[in-house]
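At this stage, I wrote out one protein, both as residues and as discrete backbone shape codes, and that material follows here.
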Amino acid sequence: MKKRSNSVVLLLLLLLLGSTTQLLAEGRTLEEVPMPEVRRIVSLGPINTENVYLLGAEDRLVANTSYCVRPEAAREKEKIGSVMQVSLEKIISLRPDLVLATGLTQQQQLDKMRALGLRVVQFEQPSSFASICSQFLRLGRLLGLEERAREIVARARARVKQVQDHYAVAPCQKVFLQIGSQPMFSSVVGSFTNDYISYSGALNIAGTRSNGAMNYERVLAADPDVIIIAIMGSEAGVAARERQKWLRFNGMKAVDRQRIHVIDPDLVCSPSPVSFAEAFARIAALIHPQDRAGSGS
């Protein structure tokens, strides 16, 4: 009887090994092998939190950060700190099956969590809409929800293409997308925020820069047709004050044509596939205000 029991255990181990080997052959790491039994998730960043909700797995999310405000229900989850600084003691006390880290999670904290036996998967800041979708599919696999993830990504891609097609023949506009104020910071190539502009058929005035640091002189010299402000702290009036600063520069096209806009930074700067599509539709409508009909904005 004991011999038969050992044989069954060996068979199960071989099946598990074969499954894991196949996953590794597909380019997945051991930490990315799906775990349907994951029931306690801690998210260390807004994108991860929104993606968990989008997958319908919010009942598994036991905690997130103070910056996790989308969707509204995420505000009510237990908090483990900010994006840059988390409480390891708090995380450990929650007994998570999975910790979803970000590119801003400190390496020292990542190392400590893993040393303590926590299963940590890190999602770097996405560099494009394509990488936003790729990360979402990766999370879907981790949670055993890959089919749902694929359906959501397909709808988001279709929405993005619809908006792209709508503005395909619109005249090219020069855009300054401001995502920081002190110091002033702009969207650049290699950032998903640049896709909002390029997908609209517009020109990013900071698109050729190696980093996003900007100043008023550079923006004035580029003379953008439109300025879009998406900086954290909008709820405290920071973005509105930035808009007032720009309005002082008479003679710049964006000022003279009253095309300086403030947009929700939580929507623009921490997107899921779905919220990227929503933000893109809104930004494209601001870039091409004369041709909004049919954009769904």
The longest strand covers residues 174-181.
